[in-house]
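hey so i finally got around to running the thing on that chain from the lab meeting. sorry it took forever, my laptop kept dying and i had to restart like 3 times. anyway pasting the input first so we r on the same page abt which one it is
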Amino acid sequence: MSHNIKILPGATVCEDCTLEGDITIGGGTVIHPRVTIIAEGGPIIIAEYCIIEEYSTIIHKKSDKQENPPKALFIGAHNVFEVGCRLESIFGHIGEYNIFECRSFVGADVRIGSGCVVGAACCLTAQQTLADNTVIWGSQHHIREALEKQPSQLLQLDFLSKVMPNYHRLRKPNVHKRQPSRQSTEPAK
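ok and heres what got predicted. didnt touch it at all, straight out
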């Protein structure tokens, strides 16, 4: 499997994580040590301001109907993957502002909207779609609609991006924003 890891400026990515395949990590995203991200079914694009904590696993699984070129898995902005959670997906989109709590498991046949919470140790394996603002919790997998939107994690992201370089080796950003060329900014004569 070829590795094409793109880290945008502002992302904090620990060296001690496993990144395999074609992966793009958005600015402001924090990836802790011991995280595993595997793009076996196509590229994974992680948007801005996500937090992926220790021992979390994200896998873009191969589908039975392999498309050419393979469809990317897009993980929206402001998602939080807590310690030890696992997300396996064959679908092309995970919404924004979701929380995957500690040791939760989301199987390949589950679609996730925005503003959802998958509770600690909840295991979703049956084919289903979580509508926006769905909360699942408890050993019986109770379901309800969120009463309010999920809070922003910007303060935690700011704290982590300042503290983590003191304790961990980081991967450097390798994608730079393009500057307009001089020719395109000068008026035509």
